[in-house]
Amino acid sequence: MVPPPPAVLPIDLSHPLTLPPKVLPREKPDLNGRLHDVPHQPGVYLMRDRLGKIIYVGKAKNLRKRLSHYFQPARSRMADLKTRSLIKSIWDFEFHVVRNEPESLLLESKLIKEYRPKYNISLRDDKRFLLLKMHPAEPWPRFFLTRTRKDDGARYFGPFAHSGSDPHAQGRWCALLWSLRPQRKSAHHPALDAAPVRPALLPAGGAR
Length: 208
Known about the structure:
Oligomer: single chain
CATH class of the domain at 31-115: Alpha Beta
Number of strands: 6
């Protein structure tokens, strides 16, 4: 009987992701034999060394296909020096299934920033994915782009997995999604200030 696929739960990136420590055997185990337990689903995988320390975090559209690359002798012989060194150091692996590729990108980034694995050379800086912020207490609420979520009464949307390094591009995307028009902070119109109507704020749903 084929076992059911692992449950896929929404990831919560607002809190640290604590992974329990592992006590690993002194002899390197046969990791290739564990691949049949890995699903053909998107997710994030972690590699540990013989001391149980996380040394690499990666993402995959198909977890089993990606992980199998690490444990095939023919492929490992053709790999570059860094990858061969990583493969030689792997004593254990684990995986976390997500719902889609954007979620895997977000989870990978968070884990790399929290554990700073030895073999990850990217995503280790302090950059965060962009959030869209709106404070409903303002008379005319405005939208801001930020990388930090605070407990300040504001409403936050995101994070956006494809923020990249260009915040202006993300702002243009948000403007298109909500049909927003940029407005200078100091711009006021007497007729609007005196109007007894409340401005429309947001489409329903999606707020956090």
